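Why Multidrug export protein MepA? Reviewers of the renewal asked for a concrete example.
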Amino acid sequence: MKVENNLDTDKVRGLVWRLAFPSMLAQFVNVLYSIVDRMYIGNIEGIGALALAGVGICGPVVTLISSFASWIGVGGAPLMSIRLGQKNERAATQMVANCFALLTGMAVVIMTITFLFRKPLLVFFGASPSIFPYADEYMSWYLSGTVFALLAAGMNQFIICQGFAKVGMKSVVLGAVCNIALDPVFIFALNMGVKGAAIATVLSQMASCIYVLVFLFGKMPLVRITFGGYRWNTMKQVLVVGLSPFLIIASDSLLIIVMNMVIRKFSNPADGDMLLTCNTIVQSFMLLITMPLGGITGGTQTVLGYNYGAGRPDRIRKAEKHIVSLGLAFTAVMFVIAQTAPGYFVRIFTREASYVGITEWAIRMYTLAVIPLAVQYTVVDGFTGMGIAKVAVSLSMFRKFVYFLGMLLLPMLFGVEKVFFAEPISDIIACVMSSCTFLLLSGRVLGDNRRL
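Here is what the prediction returned.
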């Protein structure tokens, strides 16, 4: 087997950089899935603003669905890495087989249930009568590709964690490029509007899924997809370890849904749809920060998991230093962009002056503390990569709880626009808590690398 990165002997700094950058780039390109859809939809003549608000209602629901891919993929891949570090290839292969079966079954169930209950869910999540038709049309077509979306994202983790970071990146880039090419064809050339955007996304996810499965069924990886050997104990272990990334992504989606509901509740009818459109653009910008940042901290988990399994705490400590440095550098660049040039991003979606002004302000406020966010991501994903799920979940949920309180209290006390301050407040507090936890627990954890 030829690998791009030798997790056992390569220098830690080089490993981190070679794994982080393809993963970061892949996630950056992956953001284009949603941003390109929203960009074209926002520019549909006559209905752009309302259609964008409708797709904004669907956005967190779509992300919530995709979080199940992280539950299985990010839950199983570190466990596979630990077993490879222990030189137990048979157990690593069994792990992949169980994850593939679990993810496939989960995708079918999620698609069926969400389709049946999509209409009351969209109304409950804040879709007004004027934007509901667009939200319902987009969601109905998007759900047809649930299996492709979950398998592409979830199984791609098992490619990256075997050292094939570039292959993992190519699978994501393939889907994004297809989406960019197909969107104008289906939305404008075929005059399908919102439905066309959803169909283009489904076809793009299908392309990524095929690429990932062809590779994992092929001869190049050491650990391939096989059938049989299914064990509930193995699946249960994946669900426990993957609970952290699942809750992180799922709770982010739920909080955006709650944020849309809060905006609808505390806004007057005339401003409600405008603020929902504003929030859709703000969340799109945040994806440009959080997904590449997650690529840095998530793509390098394999270094931590492998060396945890191999009992080499010195390499883990070196890796964590390089990971947090990359994260801080990236978020610092994005902070400068957010504070100095948000208008360029906003005008991709809309050029209506009333929308542009409030959205520029909201982006600046929402991103005030994105630099400390790098510490939170490094610590949480670091513990997840070593299979220490309880600590990772606790830290993540603490940040979400602070954000939730701020999101509810700030609009009540100071007006609906102040809801955008909930994010920086929670980021600062979470950074302090994560830093203290890491300093207190890292010595004990790395000194007790019991096999998982």
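The chain has a mean pLDDT of 85. This is the kind of structural detail the renewal will allow us to pursue systematically.
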